[in-house]
């Protein structure tokens, strides 16, 4: 096996240093929010967003005034995208069934899928107004029938972004706040004098937002641990360097630390892609961002075989994996660790980000090894229940339960079983002993 790195990214040690600095800032800020509530949130909004108002929640009239500023074409596009997201989310929801079965005569077991009762949706927007993130978090929560959906987004150029607010409102948000960063995450999860805390946080964000969600996990639920956007292009000579470079830089423009990896078995394609990246960085308006990401976090890896490419891809477990080969479905069948797959040259990650209908909030930093992305099921809790409806079943299960509890030394547990055996089975089990085996008793 020969795997060659034509370009490498910043070391893991350097990235770990950045993470440590972020952790310290977030921990201190969340502590301030818990202690100071609305006053601290306002201070942070003024400091980081340069934005102040008596209350950061938008009124119905303000929402209506902002939506008027969205052009008819923009509104139609937003509605089209939300329809795709809702349709797929509804199909997913319909696949999740409540069940109830009689496992043995008189014993009924089941589960119910119950929505989380409140969710806070974070929609990034300080640098780029992430309209699509409102569809992915708010509209999907609405399909799940979450009773209380609140949404936060930072101001864009000093004001609420009309398109983002429209998408939140159309998606089904019950409360909309114009605030960003750690203060938004902290206010939603911890609560303040004017904001009731939620049960769950969802949505992407920068490193500080992601770290705030990580630190608050347990106090509230979260969708997943989401870091900077990641993209991987798996390609062979069925495509060209321009296509690969375009797909890599298209995601690298998300931020200054967005990993982008080309994985190929063609050294020619690798070199052509490098040349095309240099060319495109001369003309793309977001070159300052995309170029920095590519410089620090871009990688090109050349393998000898498709099996090597598969092994490397599963090890990296990238958030977005664009597959453009002569065997795309082979990768679909065999890949196990990723956020989402985009199969074939006609498909691209931007489709998934904005409009095609799958959710764009996906696992990063290798989390694809143990979780998928945000979907309607993340808003649902599957709760089991059980009931025994006959004396015979209460006696039979109680006898087994009694003996198994005593096997572990739990006398109080055993007595929960024994009292049923006595009452519903008419069997006199001495206190604090395991129920006799029925055949032995006979």
Automatic annotation (TrEMBL):
Its EC number is 1.1.1.23. It is an enzyme of class 1 (oxidoreductase). It comes from the Bacteria. GO terms for molecular function: histidinol dehydrogenase activity. Keywords: Metal-binding, Oxidoreductase, Zinc. The keyword Protein transport does not apply. Its cofactor is Zn(2+). Transmembrane segments: none annotated. Belongs to the histidinol dehydrogenase family. This is Histidinol dehydrogenase.
């Amino acid at each position: 096996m020969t795997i060659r790195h034509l370009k490498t990214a910043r070391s893991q040690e350097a990235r770990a240093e950045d993470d440590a600095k972020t952790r310290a800032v977030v921990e201190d800020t969340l502590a301030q929010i818990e202690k100071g509530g609305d006053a601290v949130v306002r201070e942070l909004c003024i400091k980081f967003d340069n934005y102040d108002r008596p209350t950061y929640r938008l009124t119905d009239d303000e929402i209506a005034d902002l939506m008027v500023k969205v052009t008819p074409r923009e509104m139609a596009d937003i509605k089209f995208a939300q329809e795709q997201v809702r349709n797929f989310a509804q199909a997913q929801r319909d696949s999740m069934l409540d069940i109830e079965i009689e496992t043995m005569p008189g014993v009924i077991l089941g589960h119910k899928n119950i929505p989380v009762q409140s969710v806070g949706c974070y929609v990034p927007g300080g640098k780029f107004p992430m309209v699509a993130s409102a569809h992915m978090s708010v509209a999907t929560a609405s399909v799940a029938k979450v009773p209380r959906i609140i949404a936060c987004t930072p101001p864009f150029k000093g004001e609420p972004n009309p398109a983002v607010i429209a998408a939140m409102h159309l998606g089904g948000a019950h409360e909309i706040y114009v605030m960003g960063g750690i203060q938004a995450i902290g206010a939603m999860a911890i609560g303040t004098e004017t904001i009731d805390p939620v049960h769950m946080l969802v949505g992407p964000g920068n490193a500080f937002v992601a770290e705030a969600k990580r630190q608050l996990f347990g106090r509230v639920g979260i969708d997943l641990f989401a870091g900077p956007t990641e993209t991987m292009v798996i390609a062979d000579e069925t495509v060209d360097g321009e296509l690969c470079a375009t797909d890599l830089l298209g995601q690298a423009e998300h931020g200054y630390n967005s990993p982008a990896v080309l994985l190929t078995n063609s050294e020619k394609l690798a070199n052509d892609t490098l040349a095309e990246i240099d060319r495109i960085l001369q003309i793309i308006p977001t070159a300052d961002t995309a170029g920095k990401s590519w410089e620090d976090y871009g990688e090109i890896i050349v393998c000898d075989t498709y099996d090597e490419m598969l092994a490397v891809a599963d090890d990296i477990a990238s958030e977005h994996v664009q597959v453009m080969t002569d065997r795309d479905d082979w990768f679909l069948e065999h890949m196990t660790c990723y956020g989402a797959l985009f199969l074939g040259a006609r498909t691209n990650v931007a489709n998934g980000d904005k409009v095609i209908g799958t959710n764009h909030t996906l696992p990063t930093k290798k989390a694809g090894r143990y979780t998928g992305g945000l979907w309607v099921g993340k808003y649902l809790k599957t709760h089991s229940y059980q009931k025994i409806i006959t004396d015979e079943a209460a006696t039979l299960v109680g006898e087994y339960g009694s003996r198994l509890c005593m096997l572990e030394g739990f006398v109080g547990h055993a007595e929960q079983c024994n009292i049923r055996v006595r009452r519903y089975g008419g069997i006199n089990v001495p206190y604090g002993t395991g129920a006799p085996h029925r055949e032995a008793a006979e």
